[in-house]
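User: Second chain of the day. Same drill as before.
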Amino acid sequence: MTNEIQVTTAEQYQKAALNTLKRQITMGVNIPKNFDAEGALGYTALAIVNSGFTVSKEVIVDTLIKVASKGLDPRKDQLYVIPNKKGQVMLMESYFGYEKLAYDIPEIERGSIFAEVVRQGETVSFKGRTLEHEKSFEAIDNDIIGAYAKVKIGDEEIAHYMSVYQISKSWSKTNSLDKNFIEEQRHNNYGNSWTVKVADTSKIEKGNLTAFNKNQEDFPEEMYENTRCFHTSGITLGLGGPVRENAIEMMKKFKEKGALISFDVNFRGNLWTGDEARDCITEILPIVDIFFSSEFHSQSYIWKNRGHKRNPEKFFR
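Assistant: Same format as last time:
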């Protein structure tokens, strides 16, 4: 929750950046028209102050100047402000940001930009610098395999397409778990307990993790033939949906091709229940060669009942 000290600190950074902007404008530097610098910079400064990371005044003011020079407003989701534990702040334009920048070009008329996702089973054909997308009602619930944006400049239409893999690689450069964590309690047999920080996987949309949200034919056959060991964990299986299904199918196929199968329980109660985890892990245990489970997980309710009695090693006998 924002307190008065944080607001006051953010205001100081905002005023410093606005003063610098005024001096730059008198020197001939242009700021995009219709840009609410005071509001956008104040919001950005407060977001950085509230992030929990230690960022120097110089870096914050420099970031605010960059926001103003772009003319993009994070309040309108045109720009993502991403601080990290190294004291840096990364700025990443969103789709709405690029749309706004495009409409700043006089040759681009309002309403001439269009974006859409492509789902498994739909057809995309590339024609020159644009593309045609044949949508299908039957594919409305299928996995997303890509996305594109079109812009019309005069009489010419230009399109840019990205696959799901390309999109995930792009986001992987900016996504950070530095502040995306939750606290969990750990216990041992001696009555001691302690708190640890783990990744907050609840922020991942279940069943839609990009790396596994593919069909098996999307992966080259030589990948299975040339792999010596395949590792996955309970976090992947806990995401459910096609992610779980594909991960299990990949485990089986790697096993058939002679690879060792490694599995780490890594149970996360915010992804699935103990019963659900136990049933799924029991299913894959016969093909697992290397099994990791902490003392906490081995003695937790995951393995209780149904004759398991806290002993997953039973399944390897």
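The longest helix spans residues 4-26.

User: Great, on to the next one.
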